[in-house]
């Protein structure tokens, strides 16, 4: 067993220096779906990825935490740096990368027959993390995910007994338990009602103090509410490209590219 990390108040996981994609391309078989994506994600910021369906947003975030390569026929080129180290460098432990770069999906996917508490702690063994006190970690993660008050008296209820919005926050708490530096969120609210959506958006804002967040969203108001930066992706017949990235207020008020303007003003997509 490799040396386990001890997670204590004196040794919190730090933000790191951020994330950077350089010259990322992706293919499914011969289908070139992403071309030359260059994006910087500064530590402690929230970046929204927007663009019409099929332009490669999900594929792009799967290249960041090396999930893309697990899809049959998938290929990629380029580099992804986390704290200055290429996550694709030979000899990199893919499991470790996935622990440092967590992911939350469109459809909440808690383990339905595990308890709420077991769900949150389910990644610890894989992460080889030793924690001085599991109850403290459980409370901390559920608090940061904005779920503690609602579940503190029913930690032994099944994950599947929660509402959709609560299940999504449980999945966020589960990601947090292994202390990731980056959280990738692929349309995390698209299956949720407006109230739950706002609750998750608050959670995202709170988490951004301690981690770097990349969120795919089709909801322009959501991008405007939660993100510091926005990147607009588009596939114009060919592979998806990143057309423009800027502080979110600029993307929505004075985009540089006509195609960005057309998209954010609802003319297509
Ligand atoms: N598992 C897959 N196998 C083959 N092609 C895929 C797969 N997933 C996505 N694609 C294709 O890759 C392109 C980008 O898809 P995706 O990344 O899902 O876009 P978005 O998330 O922006 O809607 C699309 O043309 C889609 O059909
Ligand atoms: Mg998608």
TrEMBL record:
| Keyword ATP-binding tagged | yes
Q: Which UniProt keywords apply?
A: ATP-binding, Nucleotide-binding, Transport
Where in the numbering of this chain does the ABC transporter domain appear? 19-264
Q: Name one GO molecular function term.
A: ATP hydrolysis activity
Q: Does the keyword Mitochondrion apply?
A: no
Q: What is this protein called?
A: Unannotated protein
UniProt-listed NCBIfam families = 3a0107s01c2
Pfam families documented for this protein: ABC_tran
Its lineage reads: unclassified sequences, metagenomes, ecological metagenomes
Which organism does this sequence originate in? freshwater metagenome
Q: Name one GO biological process term.
A: phosphate ion transmembrane transport
């Amino acid at each position: 067993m490799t040396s386990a990390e001890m997670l204590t108040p004196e040794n919190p996981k730090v933000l790191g220096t951020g994330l950077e994609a350089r010259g990322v391309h992706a293919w499914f078989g011969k289908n070139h779906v992403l071309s030359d994506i260059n994006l910087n994600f500064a530590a402690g910021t929230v970046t929204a990825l927007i663009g019409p369906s099929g332009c490669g947003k999900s594929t792009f975030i799967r290249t960041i935490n090396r999930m893309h390569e697990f899809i049959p026929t998938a290929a990629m080129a380029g580099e992804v740096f986390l704290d200055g180290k290429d996550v694709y460098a030979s000899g990199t432990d893919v499991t470790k990368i996935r622990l440092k770069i967590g992911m939350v999906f469109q459809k909440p996917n808690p383990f339905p027959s595990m308890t709420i508490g077991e769900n949150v702690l389910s990644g610890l063994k894989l992460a080889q993390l030793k924690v001085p006190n599991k109850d403290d970690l459980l409370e901390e993660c559920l608090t940061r995910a904005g779920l503690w008050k609602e579940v503190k008296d029913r930690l032994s209820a099944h994950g599947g007994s929660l509402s959709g919005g609560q299940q999504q926050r449980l999945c966020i708490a589960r990601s947090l338990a292994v202390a990731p530096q980056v959280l990738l969120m692929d349309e995390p609210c698209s299956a949720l009602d407006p109230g739950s959506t706002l609750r998750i958006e608050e959670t995202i804002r709170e988490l951004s103090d301690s981690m770097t967040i990349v969120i795919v969203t089709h909801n322009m108001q959501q991008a405007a509410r939660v993100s510091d930066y926005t990147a607009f992706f588009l596939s114009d017949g060919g592979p998806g490209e990143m057309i423009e990235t800027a502080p979110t207020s600029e993307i929505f008020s004075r985009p540089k590219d006509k195609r960005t303007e057309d998209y954010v003003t609802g003319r297509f997509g």
